[in-house]
Write a structure and sequence with these properties.
The structure is a single chain. By secondary structure, the chain is of the alpha+beta class. 40% of the residues lie in helices and 17% in strands. A 6-stranded antiparallel β-sheet has the order 1-2-3-6-5-4. Helix 2 packs antiparallel against helix 3. The longest helix has 27 residues. The N terminus is likely disordered.
Length: 234
């Protein structure tokens, strides 16, 4: 395990909720942590303002465009996925940054974070969004210092078509944004499942201004969640 470096605050407790106490702050991010509430919906759907959905659609497109090459690399390369899992478990942010640039040379400014059982990659955006993230994690409280490369590869293969569609199709990104902004989990799930065909996908929900996908693979005893969400602490 790498020595912790000055100026970087790591999740002290790997069992802490990625959104909860003991969170990480990486350079350029705000103190505190990202809030990731449980999947769910409010009692009443909101009326979507066109400009709100348009803004979220652009953010979804840009985030997906930066992350799609990474998921493709994870799915295609067992050695790369193994190195990534090692960096996650060892809290090696420098290693994660190097690997990100290998997979996606044009990824631009980003802020990786890890707690030993998952990771987030956050990207800065103008107001009102400020920061948006994509990441994969085992639910905190399940296990410590585990991130299986085989599960990550299977998940990456499953979600790549979603990220690719978001990155290439403005109309698809707008539809997902409208479902999220309108608090319509059924519509969001239908759109996501149209792209993610894996039988291991268990649930799709709306969380933190984005979507959350839960997978359970036959070869693993852990649930893995892929989240494309707003960083609410920025």
């Amino acid at each position: 395990m790498m020595d912790k470096q000055p100026g970087r605050i790591y999740w002290a407790n790997p069992q802490a909720r990625i959104a909860g106490a003991g969170k990480i702050r990486v350079p350029g991010t705000a103190a505190g942590g990202r809030r990731v509430p449980e999947a769910g919906r409010s009692a009443d759907k909101k009326t979507v303002k066109p400009e709100a959905a348009a803004t979220l659609a652009s953010v979804l497109q840009q985030t997906a465009r930066k992350m799609a090459p990474f998921y493709r690399k994870v799915a295609d390369s067992a050695p790369y996925a193994r190195k990534w899992s090692e960096a996650v478990v060892e809290l090696d942010l420098d290693g994660m940054e190097r690997l990100l640039k290998i997979a996606s040379p044009r990824i631009g400014r980003n802020y990786p974070a890890t707690n030993g059982i998952g990771y987030f990659i956050s990207f800065p955006f103008p107001d009102p969004v400020k920061s948006y993230s994509s990441g994969t994690t085992i639910p905190p409280g399940t296990v410590q210092s585990v991130f299986e490369p085989e599960a990550h590869r299977a998940l990456a293969e499953a979600v790549y078509p979603l990220y690719r569609s978001l990155s290439l199709s403005r109309s698809f990104a707008q539809a997902v944004a409208a479902a999220v902004e309108g608090d319509d989990p059924e519509a969001a799930a239908a759109l996501v499942r149209a792209k993610v065909k894996s039988k291991s996908l268990r649930t799709v929900g709306i969380e933190s201004g984005g979507v959350a996908l839960s997978f359970r693979f036959s070869f693993s005893k852990y649930t893995y969640r892929n989240l494309l969400i707003r960083d609410e602490t920025a």
